[in-house]
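Hey, resending since the last one bounced:
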Amino acid sequence: MVAGCAGNSTNQKSSADTVSIDSDARTKTADSARENSNTISIMTSTDEGAALIVKNDCRNCHKEREKLIGPAFSEIANRYGHYDIDSLAAKIIKGGSGHWGDASMSPHPLLSITEARVIVKFIFKYR
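The structure tokens again:
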């Protein structure tokens, strides 16, 4: 009778190998997200948030990567986190001023809170 031990197999990976592979996967994912933030475009995106930005007057004051009257979407994305989605959505609806200088943001009372959240989540893709 021949008995084998799977522990002697040269095909098994050590836990150090797994950690290295996991780290490489995280790095590739982060690099991919950075590439996406540099190539994302409101005009070519099929995202509902992009459509809402186009449908509303957001682009009158905001550009994707450059300051216009208000901050660039990329600046907003880099300043705030996912925990700010609700407060930013409320700011889109109510308007406001003082967080980015003297310019005030006009209110958008016809947007629902759900639509405003979709816009904020799309803006966060600019990270």
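The two ends are 61 Å apart (CA to CA).

Sorry for the duplicate.
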